[in-house]
Amino acid sequence: MPETYELPKLPYALNALEPSISSQIMDLHYNRHHQTYITNLNASLTAHADALSTSNLPKQLDLQPAIKFNAGGHITHTLFWESLAPPSPTTNDPSTAAPELHTAITHRWRGDFAAFKSAFEAGALAIQGSGWMWLLKDAATSGLELATSKDQDLPVGTAGGGKMIVFGVDMWEHAYYLQYFNNKKEYLAKIWDVVNWKTAERRFKAKGAEGVFGSLAGLASSSGRL
Q1: What percent of the chain has pLDDT above 70?
Q2: Coil, helix or strand for 167?
Q3: Radius of gyration of the chain measured on its C-alpha atoms
Q4: Which of 90, 176, 177, 187 is the most exposed place for a label (fewest CB within 10 A)?
Q5: 10 Å Cβ neighbour count for 32?
Q6: Is 157 in contact with 163 (CB distance < 8 Å)?
Q7: Pick from 194, 195, 169, 171: which is nearest to 182 by CA?
Q8: What pLDDT, in 10s, does the model give residues 123-142?
Q9: What are the start-end ranges of the H helices in 142-196?
Q10: How far apart are CA 114 and CA 118, in angstroms?
């Protein structure tokens, strides 16, 4: 039997991110959207295992897009929940909660943390359709860079370990529309108030994929090859 996945427990209540993210959005986003990715992933993995057992190559190939999409949805959303925290100076102030990352950001953006935020928001607003905005670290150089990914794809290079995810923001409409309607700029402005910079610091200092993906490192690696 293939491994099955479950909805990860949130480290905060559904209303804990208000006013940046409403409890209504959190309920729909976490309990319905994320759960749907997991349900569909488990069903696709079971069907794929059956196809393997019967050497049904066409069926195996047919299932790969569903596995990639739903595995990506599970991984990206798990990372997203971990990247957020209720408003608190101990987690939401990057200069104290993430001193090494804060130094790297200000160095990369020439001493201006606000310039980094502006560049991140500009990249997110330029996404056409659904996708994600990411801050990444190059594993070889430790340099920081911004990247986007389409739909539920992981950013290029992260599944293989060449790039390390520091944090990302969901730019699918279901992440903001009920609260912000089509005002993505306001959503992005408010998301900074609930970024968990302690988690971002831990990922920035991580040496391998498990330091970012945790127990989902194997799933990230395998889905990245599809």
Answers
A1: 100
A2: strand
A3: 18
A4: 90
A5: 10
A6: yes
A7: 171
A8: 999 999 999 999 999 999 99
A9: 177-180, 184-191
A10: 6
Structure tokens at 170: 């969901």
Average pLDDT over residues 198-219: 93
Of the candidates 179, 165, 219, 169, the one whose C-alpha atom is nearest the C-alpha of residue 41 is 219
- What is the overall mean pLDDT for the chain? 96
E strand or H helix that includes residue 137: strand 131-138
Q: How many CB atoms lie within 10 A of CB 89?
A: 8
- How many residues are given for the chain? 226
Q: What is the pLDDT of residue 208?
A: 86
Which one-letter amino acid corresponds to residue 92? N
- pTM comes to 0.96
CA distances from 8 to 63, 214, 216 (A): 24, 12, 11
Q: DSSP H helical segments within 83-146, as ranges?
A: 89-92, 94-97, 99-108, 113-125
What CA–CA distances, in Å, run from 102 to 98, 106, 117, 141, 165? 6, 6, 12, 17, 15
What mean pLDDT comes out for the span 30-56?
A: 97
**Dist CA 202 CA 196 (whole Å):** 10
Angstrom distance (rounded) from CA 14 to CA 207: 32
Site of tokens 């923001």: 169
